């Protein structure tokens, strides 16, 4: 249902100042996530004003999760509002199964997945989302209730990269109440989402406690300030972890990691936990770190006198030569996906794939590019390549090598870029970069591709 806020007064938010810390140039294309609620509509109004002044390319995105019958008509309404503001709009529709458990969490993953794919395909520099100071405070409280550590209690980051897409939150220090006068002054209607009143959701129940918490001094501003202070500690610990991992872990373009067990774990507990957690994220492609108690159990096993192996987060840790090899579990690998021409894509949340020479590969291999896909090498082809290339080239066990990304055409192996392999002996036409360590905050650049 659309509503118009009637609070009087003129909002004086300096959006250009809020946007400045992100360092965007006026030529950087930006997308705005717009559900139609008051926060996202306020962000759209502010972003549209700024784009008119700067000449910045701006596009509004709305996701229809398929959860509510009225979602389609609401998306049409948002499109009309965007048009009135001079902003192009696209509705992204989820075609898969409708979330039934952990609805808000699954819907969030669907939303970011669809918007991320659109941003990648359209070369968007950043995706703006409308989280406010109130959202930050609620996030902190929810994570406190779950017993989160420093990272969780640092709240949402104002600037983060997810699956290769930069997500920025320019309103993260702005109270929600400061946005309402803007909507009133611009006579901008918005949609009231009934799920925001559904007490089956923990965030809604936490929001209902706001008056009681404020009476005790736990205002949204103070909670957000606490999250900000903890984020400083988080960043310091992250820097220490990155330096430690850089000194004792080697990542390979094939998607695995090797390390000396004693060197990895002979550090203070917090750094050990973070190091193990980030290795799991890097090799397993996880967006979020594994649960603390699972990470602690793995660290304890790595610290034991004897280590026979373990698995966590889709990653298998196994003794290898004089150290430990961490590699993707085959059963956790992503399914093969089609390669759409020269458009870059992210596969298995860990690899960026781009095509350098479609014509050359098609001519050499006699396969039309429309039939190409990227997927796991598989045990059979891994064993065949070990015999062909020799163990000095393929140095890891077949179980690890089977997870290397490879290019296929209707089941026929065309090339394995991470190994520099093509059946005709030519240089592979695809470039595949292992970006898992970079996304986990362990390296500054992808592995296995020249800058």
TrEMBL record:
<dbReference type="InterPro" id="IPR012094">
    <property type="entry name" value="tRNA_Ile_lys_synt"/>
</dbReference>
<protein>
    <recommendedName>
        <fullName>tRNA(Ile)-lysidine synthase</fullName>
        <ecNumber>6.3.4.19</ecNumber>
    </recommendedName>
</protein>
<comment type="function">
    <text>Ligates lysine onto the cytidine present at position 34 of the AUA codon-specific tRNA(Ile) that contains the anticodon CAU, in an ATP-dependent manner. Cytidine is converted to lysidine, thus changing the amino acid specificity of the tRNA from methionine to isoleucine.</text>
</comment>
<keyword id="KW-0819">tRNA processing</keyword>
<dbReference type="GO" id="GO:0032267">
    <property type="term" value="F:tRNA(Ile)-lysidine synthase activity"/>
</dbReference>
<feature type="binding site">
    <location>
        <begin position="35"/>
        <end position="40"/>
    </location>
    <ligand>
        <name>ATP</name>
    </ligand>
</feature>
<keyword id="KW-0067">ATP-binding</keyword>
<dbReference type="InterPro" id="IPR011063">
    <property type="entry name" value="TilS/TtcA_N"/>
</dbReference>
<dbReference type="InterPro" id="IPR014729">
    <property type="entry name" value="Rossmann-like_a/b/a_fold"/>
</dbReference>
<keyword id="KW-0963">Cytoplasm</keyword>
<dbReference type="GO" id="GO:0005524">
    <property type="term" value="F:ATP binding"/>
</dbReference>
<dbReference type="Pfam" id="PF01171">
    <property type="entry name" value="ATP_bind_3"/>
</dbReference>
<dbReference type="InterPro" id="IPR012795">
    <property type="entry name" value="tRNA_Ile_lys_synt_N"/>
</dbReference>
<keyword id="KW-0436">Ligase</keyword>
<keyword id="KW-0547">Nucleotide-binding</keyword>
<dbReference type="GO" id="GO:0005737">
    <property type="term" value="C:cytoplasm"/>
</dbReference>
<feature type="domain" description="tRNA(Ile)-lysidine/2-thiocytidine synthase N-terminal">
    <location>
        <begin position="30"/>
        <end position="208"/>
    </location>
</feature>
<comment type="similarity">
    <text>Belongs to the tRNA(Ile)-lysidine synthase family.</text>
</comment>
<dbReference type="GO" id="GO:0006400">
    <property type="term" value="P:tRNA modification"/>
</dbReference>
């Amino acid at each position: 249902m659309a509503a118009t806020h009637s609070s009087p007064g003129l909002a004086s938010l300096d959006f250009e100042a809020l946007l400045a810390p992100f360092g965007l140039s006026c030529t950087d294309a930006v997308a705005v996530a717009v559900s139609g609620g008051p926060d996202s509509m306020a962000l759209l109004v502010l972003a549209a004003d700024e784009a008119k002044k700067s000449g910045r390319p701006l596009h509004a995105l709305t996701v229809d999760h398929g959860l509510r019958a009225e979602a389609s008509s609401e998306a049409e309404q948002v499109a009309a509002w965007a048009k009135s503001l001079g902003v192009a709009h696209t509705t992204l529709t989820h075609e898969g199964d409708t979330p039934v458990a952990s609805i808000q969490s699954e819907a969030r993953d669907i939303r970011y997945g669809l918007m991320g794919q659109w941003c990648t395909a359209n070369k968007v520099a950043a995706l703006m989302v409308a989280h406010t100071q109130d959202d930050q405070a609620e996030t902190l409280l929810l994570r406190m209730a779950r017993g989160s550590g420093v990272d969780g209690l640092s709240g949402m980051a104002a600037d983060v990269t997810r699956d290769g897409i930069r997500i920025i939150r320019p309103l993260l220090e702005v109270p929600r109440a400061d946005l309402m006068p803007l909507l009133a002054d611009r006579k901008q209607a918005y949609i009231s989402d009934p799920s925001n009143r559904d007490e089956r959701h923990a965030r809604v129940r936490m929001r209902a406690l706001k008056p009681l918490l404020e009476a005790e001094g736990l205002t949204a501003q103070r909670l957000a300030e606490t999250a900000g202070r903890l984020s400083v500690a988080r960043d310091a610990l992250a820097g220490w972890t990155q330096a430690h991992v850089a000194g004792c872990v080697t990542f390979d373009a094939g998607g695995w990691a090797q390390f000396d067990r004693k060197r990895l774990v002979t550090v203070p507990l917090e750094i050990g936990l973070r190091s193990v957690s980030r290795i799991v994220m890097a090799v397993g492609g996880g967006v979020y770190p594994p649960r603390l108690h699972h990470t602690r159990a793995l660290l304890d096993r790595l610290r034991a006198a004897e280590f026979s192996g373990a698995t966590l987060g889709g990653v298998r840790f196994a003794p290898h030569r004089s150290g430990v090899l961490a590699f993707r579990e085959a059963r956790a690998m992503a399914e093969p996906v089609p390669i759409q021409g020269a458009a870059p894509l992210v596969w298995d949340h860990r690899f960026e794939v781009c095509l350098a020479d479609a014509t050359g590969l098609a001519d050499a291999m006699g396969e039309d590019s429309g039939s190409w896909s990227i997927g796991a090498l598989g045990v059979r082809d891994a064993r065949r390549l070990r015999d062909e290339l020799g163990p000095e080239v393929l140095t890891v066990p077949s179980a690890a090598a089977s997870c290397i990304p490879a290019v296929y055409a209707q089941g026929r192996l065309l090339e394995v870029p991470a190994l520099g392999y093509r059946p005709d002996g030519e240089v592979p036409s695809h470039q595949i970069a292992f970006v898992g360590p970079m996304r986990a905050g362990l390296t500054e650049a992808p592995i296995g591709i020249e800058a």
